[in-house]
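Hi P.,

Sorry for the delay on this. The queue was packed all week, but I finally got your sequence through. Input first:
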Amino acid sequence: MRMNKTTCPPVSFDFTGRFLLPVYILMFIIGLVANGWGLKSLLHNWKKLGNVNVFVLNLGLTDVLYLLTLPFLVVYYFMKSKWLFGEAFCKITRFCFNVNLYGSIGFLTCISVYRYLAIVHPMRAMGRITVTHSVIISVIVWLLVSVQSLPDMFFTKAFRNNTEKCFDTTDEAHVDEYLKYNLGWTLTGFCIPLLITLGCYGHVIVVLCRTNTIDKVLKQRSLKLMFILILLFSVCYIPYHVLRNLNLFARVLIKQRICHKWYDGVYIARQISRALVCLNIALHPLVYLHGHEDIRAQLRRLIQQAHQAVMQLSVPPTQFSLV
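Then the structure:
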């Protein structure tokens, strides 16, 4: 419903700090433990590193890059959205988030393509794709993601004459230009990789359903990986990009003094999507588990040890009688 007013009522920003502060603290703890363990396991099995696991390793490195910035965001929201580290470091922090986000999407797409080649075109891919090729492709992904994210750093990230704010987009004065940039960024950094991933796994499903000669273990792993990627895109990436662009569009309308009652709802949904996109650093270790049998065996041992420790603690102490 549109409201005919010369100025739109202000959107309440109090929700952001109250909501994102505990989310960032929780994601930092979970991401640090999960990715630290996953990367340690991958490096421990470095000699067994395969083509796909090169991308898994880079996926973990994007998470580490983002994890290093989370303590500063925790301080920011703990101080009620007062940025204490200057606009330059604010831009670096946001850049690291964007590299994590689009780097993750890029490497997940590479994993999808490699899995597609291994199942649909095994004879063509066998021996022709080496670890060196995977490393080169990974470098290209890092470069493309950095080039896509770099223009974001040239937009203002704080109010003019006030360095206390640290916007994840930009200020009101430049929101029109930022919306155009963000739409192009969404297309190249998210929509195209999503279509490639859907195309690869759509074809994989067809092949798995039609062919009975493919190993059952390979089928199970492929279906599990497909489920993980669908989960990541559906929960973490799709809501974030839809609501990010919709919120920017609402800000453009507010700047033009075109008011609607749905602005508050879009803003709150947008903040929730920011929390959901952070889940990617907690869900990526599922890719580690899927990709390496040794890592899954280590996890089973850890769970068994933890279960035994809990059982020992739950057993009452033995009653000794005095002789």
